[in-house]
Amino acid sequence: MTITCDALVAGYGEQKVLKGLSLALSPGAINVLIGPNGCGKSTLLRTAAGLLKPVSGEVQLDNKPIGQWPRRKLARQISFLPQAPVVPENMTVAQLVEQGRFAHRGLLGGMRGEDRDAVDWALEQTGLTAFRARSVAGLSGGERQRVWIAAALAQQTQIVLLDEPTTYLDIGHQLEVLELLQDLSRNRALTVLISLHEISHALMFGDRIFLMENGHLRFEGSPAALAETDLLQTVFAVEGSFRRLDRGVLAFLGERSRGRDAPGVTLAAE
């Protein structure tokens, strides 16, 4: 099961953010969206999840227009974690993660054995078993983010869309989340589409890279293929180079912004 986007034009009101973008996810792989802020990554994720109707073009899930899928059936196939989800008041960690089972049990359906197993598994995978009775509102930003990821995992879909899920995490938990997604992709054939701010993480964990700029797709392919171009330097307006690290992992070292006297931000470090 996979998602394809064909000539997508989408946005908000009169503002067109996606401008004829087409792509197809690699099934059972980590597909990573990168690009400057405002390039359309979040809009693409919302459109691919069926939450934003395109102005023109089409999103298909298994060769069927996504708009033709019943909402509950679609929620059994695709889970989506937005960039800044609202934290519910007076809800425990376990209760929030249980929300991921809604598509499987319905509005009035009670928790069954399989639902409890899915919640327990998601909590264990995200290191939150000991937090299950804690209030979500009392957690740190990083802990809350892990709870939302657990809710997405509890949904047990074959496709998971995540909009910069590592933003509020420290470096150790960032790597834990990405390693978890990589493990699920490889061992459970999970198809992941994830937007990442850290270029080094995109190169390290991405099986397929989608580089966006101003609502267009500038590149799609493997990290190694991207390293044969100068597109990162062009799109991010930096001077830099690729380095091959241990185990064949690539890193991009952004040395300085182009056209400025002051050094630019480092996009990755050895």
TrEMBL record:
CDD domains for the chain: ABC_Iron-Siderophores_B12_Hemin (cd03214)
Superkingdom to which the source organism belongs: Bacteria
UniProt KW Transcription keyword: no
Any coiled-coil regions, as ranges: none
Keywords: ATP-binding, Cell membrane, Ion transport, Iron, Iron transport, Membrane, Nucleotide-binding, Transport
Entry-linked Gene3D superfamilies: P-loop containing nucleotide triphosphate hydrolases
Classification via InterPro entries: AAA+_ATPase, ABC_transporter-like_ATP-bd, ABC_transporter-like_CS, P-loop_NTPase, Siderophore_ABC-ATPase
Ranges of residues in domain ABC transporter: 3-239
Location of the protein in the cell: Cell membrane
GO molecular function terms noted in the UniProt entry: ATP binding; ATP hydrolysis activity
GO CC terms of this entry: plasma membrane
Database matches in PANTHER family: IRON(3+)-HYDROXAMATE IMPORT ATP-BINDING PROTEIN FHUC
Family, per entry: Belongs to the ABC transporter superfamily.
Protein name stated in the entry: Iron complex transport system ATP-binding protein
Organism: Aestuariispira insulae
